[in-house]
Amino acid sequence: MSDPAWPTDERPRERLLAHGAQTLSDAELLAIFLRTGTTGMPVMALARYLIEEFSGLRGLLTASQRQFCNVKGLGTAKYAQVQAAMEMARRVMDEPLRQGDPLRSPEDTRRFLTSRLGTYPHEVFAGLFLDNRHRVIQYRELFRGTIDGAAVYPREVVRQALEDNAAAVIFAHNHPSGVAEPSQADISLTRRLKEALGLVDIRVLDHMVVGHGEVVSLAERGLL
């Protein structure tokens, strides 16, 4: 692990106030969040250590409670802080797609799905259920699986869509590997779901695959 010294006059909080949060490194932002270091390790050194230990902010923020609290200098209080910060960020991202709102743009939908699915370490299959004006009725996480995939049952999807009185649906699932490229199984599943829902006059508008910082639309690829 590399360990270059941090400049003694470095003050991330003052830099943030003077130049904006976007100018800070991941470790500097984390140091502001942590506030204090541990015995023998100042907060800046602790922040850099954690960034390297978890292979970046993403790994740290999505770590399980056990993984997080096993690191010296962290604990349940800081874990709770992280989870609260993550949830606030999700809710901000969710605002363009509140229940009852129409879909404004594909980018709003992408941001919403990324905020919901982009941090899971396991695969999750979800549906965004819409009325006939493409207003959001409900977002539902329908199936969860391991990193190797989630078992999706078309009969259960149809039942849920009918229960929500949906006229259309956008499906989404994450690839925990981070690569958003749709697999042949993803394409086959989408077509099965489209056929099953078509029997009850519910349209499948899209199926989006969420990776790390990327979302691929099967509709845009012409794969529906």
Fraction of helical residues: 40-55%
Main beta sheet? 5 strands, mixed
Report strand order across the widest sheet. Answer: 2-1-3-4-5
Cα shape: elongated
Distance between the termini: 46 Å
| β-strand number | 5
| Beta-strand proportion | 15-25%
Task: Tell me the Rg in angstroms.
Answer: 21 Å
Question: Could you give the topology of this structure?
Answer:
Layout: H1 12-19, H2 26-34, H3 43-53, H4 57-61, H5 65-69, H6 76-94, H7 106-117, E1 124-130, E2 136-144, H8 154-163, E3 168-174, H9 184-198, E4 203-210, E5 215-217
Parallel strand pairs: 3-4
Antiparallel strand pairs: 1-2, 1-3, 4-5
Outline:
The protein is an alpha+beta fold and 224 residues long. Helix content is 42%, strand content 15%.
How would you explain this protein's 3D organization?
The chain is about 40% helix and about 15% strand. It is an alpha+beta fold. Strands 2-1-3-4-5 form a five-stranded mixed beta sheet, with helices on both faces. Helix 8 crosses helix 9 (about 185-200).
Q: Top keywords for this entry?
A:
disordered N terminus, five-stranded mixed sheet, 9 helices, 224 residues, alpha+beta, single chain
